[in-house]
Amino acid sequence: xxxxxxxxxxxxxxxxxxxxxxxxxxxxxxxxxxxxxxxxxxxxxxxxxxxxxxxxxxxxxxxxxxxxxxxxxxxxxxxxxxxxxxxxxxxxxxxxxxxxxxxxxxxxxxxxxxxxxxxxxxxxxxxxxxxxxxxxxxxxxxxxxxxxxxxxxxxxxxxxxxxxxxxxxxxxxxxxxxxxxxxxxxxxxxxxxxxxxxxxxxxxxxxxxxxxxxxxxxxxxxxxxxxxxxxxxxxxxxxxxxxxxxxxxxxxxxxxxxxxxxxxxxxxxxxxxxxxxxxxxxxxxxxxxxxxxxxxxxxxxxxxxxxxxxxxxxxxxxxxxxxxxxxxxxxxxxxxxxxxxxxxxxxxxxxxxxxxxxxxxxxxxxxxxxxxxxxxxxxxxxxxxxxxxxxxxxxxxxxxxxxxxxxxxxxxxxxxxxxxxxxxxxxxxxxxxxxxxxxxxxxxxxxxxxxxxxx
Length: 455
Fold this sequence. Notes:
The protein is an alpha/beta fold. It is built from 16 helices and 15 strands. A hairpin with a 2-residue loop joins strand 9 and strand 10. The longest helix is centred in the last third of the chain and has 31 residues, at 364-394. The protein is globular, with a radius of gyration of 22 Å.
């Protein structure tokens, strides 16, 4: 398998496909290869849309790949778009890898429709924030698998999650590839098991596409590192224990969700892979030179800024709460993130204040993570708050207070976006590069697993 040749053949995608465009493409592929592929409905979304599983027939190994595990993450959908057609067209590649492949292009199509406003550009952080949606934890397909651990009990799997469970139970995948992406930074990985022979490739493949590794702060403080930018998949039990160790009295109230597809598939000995891809980067995301700032101080300053933003949002909500009339996925998300955010940050404060590794000079990458990446994610939350108010106005809510709050939220979003963009030396990353990394890493991992099984 010539991965670099495959990398060169990734199309130069200029925009992301919508849900309807993706469905049409999947049906066309099935029509083009009716003997090689199967297409069947494995469930329905909360909105009632069919969840379609595309199977590409092949060898005895089984791989299950799904895109859109969070609905603001369409990079993986584009990866499925490329990879499914490439596998159909390339019999030698299918034979070499020895897998039967199963794909769901977008598992949360309902939520992804709420993000389509930015899919065609312009690809600026501010425009992304204007149209951004990410569900509350208990509405996230990837994090609503059942779990019972100490005081954490979650059994409210979503219909989309139940569809994933049925597929996992049916195909018992050797490889489960959940196609996530982050927002700002560099490339990093989550895996279920150590795989040292792959680490060099994990580091090299982004370089083929002129992308950087993310060498700043890990996504969560308790992430176990296998290699630079390579982590063991987040386990909800570890999250629970981290919260307990850092003073959270009710960890289950902070978590608000279940466990992941990786945890669910572990009973089959499945290797789990995530390649987190950013939309934007900056030269500082992997700068390991030291600064004069203590890492602890950078973390706490970032947490203080988040507290200030949440305080402002909650104050705005108090002024209009009596006038709110709608419960929508966006309003559920805003309220849930506000409810759990401060408790989570208190635990992070405790960790930052006591962990030995925070009492040292921060790298430029770590300062960037805390003081520039975090404002980017605050901008996204601001966008959801604005959209929540916009939904009320669009529904005909006559409240002058809501209209005034909506106007202020719009103005503050534009100002915050302009300010952040002026502080960044960012670029919107080429979609082909993002698809290329996920494709090449996925194929390399599939080959590695196949070789391990044979060995």
